Each structure stands twice: as C-alpha cells, then as structure tokens.
Amino acid sequence: MEGGIPRAAAEELDAADPLAAFRERFVIADPELIYLDGNSLGRMPTATPDHLRAVLEEGWGEGLVRSWEGWIDWGSRLGDRLAEHVLGARPGEVVVSDSTSVNLYKLAGAALEAAPGRGTVLMDAEDFPTNRYVLQGLAAQRGLRLHQVPSDLDGGIDLRQLRSALNRDVALVVLSLVSYRSGALLDMARVNELARSVGTRVLWDLSHAAGAVPVELAATGADLAVGCTYKYLNGGPGSPAYLYVRRELQARLRQPIWGWFGQREQFRMGPNYDPVPGVERFLVSTPPLLSLAAIDPGLTLVEQAGVERIRAKGLLLGQLVSELAAAWLTPLGFRSASPSAAERRGSHVSLYHPDAWRICQTLAADAKVICDYRTPDRLRIGPSPLYTRFTEIWDAMDRLREVADRRTYLSRPAGLARVT
Q1: Does the annotation mark 66 as catalytic?
Q2: pTM of model > 0.85
Q3: Least packed by Cβ within 10 Å: which of 117, 253, 330, 398?
Q4: pLDDT in tens, 356-379
Q5: Catalytic residue flag (residue 368)
Q6: Is residue 35 annotated as part of the catalytic site, yes or no?
Q7: Which ranges of 114-144 does DSSP label H, i.e. alpha helix?
Q8: For residue range 97-117, what is the model confidence (pLDDT) as tens digits?
Q9: How does DSSP assign 11-75, residue by residue?
C-alpha cells in the first residue's frame, strides 16, 4: 500500500519492543483478531484461570470460612500495590472496593459534607455520563449548583476556563485525568494547584489513566481519586474499583455509606458506627472475593512491566495510529479527534467520521478488528501496550482504510444499537 509508513517499520518496532514478551502472558484466543479496545476491557492474563481456580478449590472448597483470615484484607493489600506501582501514592492511601461510580459517590459525598457553606460543584461538561449523573443526584439532594465547565470534544477542558470558574463557593471539582472520549490528558499538578488556590478539592477519575500513564497522586498533592481495574489493569469484566484519599485528609472525612468493614473493631459488632481512622473507613461491606482475586494477575504484569515503560510504548502506538490516519484516512472523510501532541493524550486515539458507528460495526463483523465507538461520531482506537503489537496497528489501520474506501459500512443500520 502506498503512502504512510511501510509495514516493515512496524515490524522493526515490534522487534525492538522491550515489552514484547508480555503479549505471551495474555490469552489470545483468535490470533487473527486485532483487539484495540483495551481501554474498555483488557485481555485476560494467562495466569488468571489458575489463580482463580486455586482460590475456588483451596480457599472456598477446602478452607471454607477459615480462608477469611487470608482474604479479609485483600482490598487493602491490593490498594497498597496500586499505590506503589500505579498511582504514585503512599501506603494506606488506597483501597479496592465497590465500583467506580459507588466510590465516586462515597468520596464526593464525604468531600461535600466537609465543605459547609459552599454551594457549587464543578465538573467537565464532557466527562463520563455516570460521573455527571452521580453529581446531579448529590447536588439535588444537597441543594447545590452543579456547574458543568464547557469542554472541547477533542481537546478536553481548557484550564483557563476551569480557572475562571473556580471561586470560594466551589465545594468540589470532579475531573477525569484522561478523557474517555478523546484521550485528552490533563495536567494533574496544575489542576490541583488551581483548586488549592481557592481552598477546594479535586476528585480525580483515573479509569482511563491507571496502568497506561504515570500517575503521581502524592507528588501533585492530590486529595481524592477513584478508578477501575478492568481496562489497562486487566482485572476482568466489572472487577472492583479503587479509591484514594490523601492520608492527612482521611480522619476528617466521613463517607455517606456506613458499613461494618469501615468500623473500628468490626467483629465486636458494636451498636454505633465508629469508623477506623485510616483509609479503610471508606470500605462498606463484605467484598466480592473472587472478583478481587482476579485483579492480582493483571496487576502483577503491570508491576513487572513498569508504568514508565508502558507509557513509552503507548506513546509510540498512539503516534503510529495518528500518522497512518493522517496519511490514509484523511482523504476518506476522517480527521483526528484527539489532541495532536502525543504527550497530551492517554493511550487511546479517537478519529472523527460521520459514519463512525457503522464503520466500527463493520470492522468487527467483516475485518476482524475490534475498536470502539463513542457518541456522537467518534471511532476510538485503544491499543494496550502490554499486548498490542505495532504490526497489529498497521494491519488494523489498513483494514479500516479498506472498509472506508469501499464504503461497505453503508449496508449497516445507521442508528445506534447499543451503548457501551
């Protein structure tokens, strides 16, 4: 195929890839399928089935209730590993529990309770819908104003607009470090600094960042964060989320869902709620142990690879997507829908096309390429550095070009048939 980067260049990148061996540690059930949706659901590590089998057979099957001695603090132990290797936090600042949405509700509720007299919550108008719905509910319950700061679909929120919206009435700011739609990456340190200047806090959603880009919660003075484990951390469908609370803030916040896993001396079964002083006060109830167990193998791979090396490869993968799109797809009605500078993106790249939905479905059904669609007209391409090859990017973009050039997608229904 003429134009763009020759496939041999992608082959050379694969040959020099220091993370290449990690691909063999993931289940690749169909070698012909090109999977570029790791920012929605990561592949399954090959170690996961045996790890879960051991928990089932040796833990549940043989140990029965006796196994709880080894299970009960998994949320804290996994949290400390995330803190050290993925989130740039200190021991005792991260726990794994519940879902991202529930954790967002807990931390947002706690932060708002600790900011009496302030009447505004700020968020990115283009943030993930659940975040908006959670905050709409909290604002309605508390009689607060939810201010959605305008945001560019491709470039993300403008920090000048955010700064102009910040004042002493703002009780909380909620932002995603990496935009779910465009991949736009925010400057965490700068945003935290802006928030501190008016005495407020930022609650970060790290779902599209953790395991893909370096996160420095402690170094940037971050107060609060949540995120999921089933994207770049490869914890499995709907695997439990995590939450972070800066150590100095923990004893001052009381979350709205009081449960016995956050209770001091929980097995005394005391009559009144008395939360532990540490981050475990943000736990609620008995955790889903099998789902927690599934996080371990994926997290182990991220620890061994190192987030810095993952990020370095992610930048190269994204750049290859962007360069091939510019050379091959621009004449076919596509344009970039992500920040042009690679360092301002996470690990996924979005492309605009008016028929992005039908193209996405055609790629999956006819070309064996799984990527992603996001409203209103974005094709989201999400390589995962631990298992995506550079030649897969080249081949996927070549197949995308063929689908677009032949316009075979026009035979598919135009209406949105599902939302993911």
Answers
A1: no
A2: yes
A3: 117
A4: 999 999 999 999 999 999 999 999
A5: no
A6: no
A7: 129-142
A8: 999 999 999 999 999 999 999
A9: HHHHHT-TTGGGGGGB--S-TT-EE-BTTTSPPPBTTHHHHHHHIIIIIIIIIGGGGHHHHTTHH
